[in-house]
Design goal:
This protein has 291 residues and is an alpha/beta fold. Helices cover 44% and strands 8% of the residues.
Length: 291
């Protein structure tokens, strides 16, 4: 299959692959892998409102979850990044709305208004690379970082990076090294999203169209907004939910570290082709250009 082909939707691996992947990972890697599958918090919403958000990592999810929390609780979290832990611990936002949504559809009652937000797939995967691979803070994914360092030649100023403590601070990363290392990551992503790696396909770079189809199992979304047009699109969500607080759509909570170079600066024709090969379905379905 050429790099320009539309990758098929990911399918569950064979029993052999599951067993093989299980025994190849350390216990710590297994725990970290589960942490990033997003299990149990895919569809959330504020209690008392027929509103459900299909979680889409790296596409404004921190902002949306914080706004939903405010709608429910009437206050903002002191640390906006705590929202991910709050949701996973079931202390605030109501989980499991998908099943209620399904039941109400079958009973022909008023369904929940189900929405999500998407983002340009190239910019989204680049943001995931910077946050999860190119840094060593608590939101990085050390298991995948070690895998890439051990199985590919990631460079910094002419020297191969071999250990996590060799990953340089973002302000020291040079343009050509960033391009090279991002392409290494894209090759990993190409296999990971098709279940062809030792790691579970990660929601932070899973094609958004595949994620929607897999989680909703054919159920239509009522609204798909774009991060690039967040204020206007989220304003429509608030109107549908009967929430007369348009100022909420102007709130933003950005969790990711600032990349050393902008996406436009690192993009080259080869990288563009790689992104098109992985995310052709997203580009076409959501109407994004390749640059």
């Amino acid at each position: 299959m050429s790099s320009d082909s539309d990758p098929p939707p990911p399918s569950p691996p064979s029993v052999y692959k599951i067993v093989k992947r299980f025994f190849k990972r350390t216990l710590k890697e297994k725990i970290r892998d589960l942490r990033y599958t997003g299990l149990g918090s895919e569809l959330i919403g504020p209690k008392g409102l027929p509103l459900g958000y299909l979680n889409m990592p790296k596409a404004g999810c921190s902002t949306i979850k914080n706004i939903l929390y405010y709608i429910e609780q009437g206050t903002w979290l002191e640390d906006p990044l705590e929202i991910h832990r709050v949701v996973s611990r079931k202390q605030a936002l109501l989980l499991g709305k998908y099943f209620q949504h399904q039941r109400m559809r079958l009973e022909k009652k008023s369904p929940y208004f189900i929405f999500t937000f998407v983002r340009h797939p190239g910019r989204r995967v680049f943001s995931a690379f910077v946050e999860k691979i190119l840094t060593t803070h608590e939101y990085a994914i050390p298991g995948i970082q070690r895998h890439l360092l051990e199985n590919a030649v990631m460079m910094h100023r002419g020297t191969r990076i071999t250990k996590l403590d060799g990953i340089p601070p973002l302000e020291e990363v040079e343009l050509e090294d960033l391009r090279r290392n991002f392409k290494i990551f894209l090759r990993f992503v190409k296999h990971n999203v098709k279940w062809d790696s030792r790691f579970h396909p990660n929601p932070h770079w899973m094609p958004q169209s595949h994620r929607i189809d897999r989680l909703l199992k054919g159920e239509p979304l009522d609204f798909i907004g774009k991060v690039e047009n967040f204020a206007e699109d989220f304003g429509q969500v608030l109107v549908k939910a009967g929430i007369n607080q348009p100022e909420l759509a102007r709130r933003r909570f950005n969790e990711g570290p600032k990349p050393p170079f902008r996406y436009e600066e690192i993009l080259d024709p080869h990288m563009q082709s790689m992104i098109r090969g992985i995310y052709a379905a997203d580009l076409e379905r959501f109407g994004y250009s390749e640059d």
